[in-house]
Here is the input.
Amino acid sequence: MNKDLEEKVREAIRNPRNMGELKDADAVGTVGNSDCGEMLRMWVKYREEKGRKVIDQATFQSFGCETAIAVASMATEMIRGKTADEALALKTEDLSGELGPLPPMKIHCAELVEGAMRSALDGPGDATAPASPSPSKEAAPTGAGNLIESLNAGNAPSGGLKIVMLDDDSPDKSD
Ligand code: FES
Here is the structure.
């Protein structure tokens, strides 16, 4: 990871936006990357605005790497005020926002965020889906324990729990 990106990621995770469970969420999506063992969950709450159903708030919890946290922080801000369709139209590279283009080895971190967002925006998941988180190889951020405990307990938040394991063939998951 180049120095500029490293500094932007560090800056973003110094004060991550929208981190934590959204208690009264309308939908939730959870995605895991079986290759690197990272997981990310996103909650979404909608509101009506001029006859449109737009995203009022989106939050996330991550048992993932710093890049995934930085992208999730930006993406949850970015999709505010958008309809689900507008948010779904965003591409992986859009979600990394001010971080700019990610190096090939970090693209799957943004894909993890995109996957959780798509999973949440596609509607409530299957509350009976089995939860089988993989351990992370990187330090868990604040709040990550809640996600893992929740997953281990099979504790589905309102809207149901859907875990999607992303297929990933990125060759290098190290920083
Ligand atoms: Fe796998 Fe970032 S999500 S290293």
Notes: The beta strands are 27-33, 39-49, 52-63, 163-166.
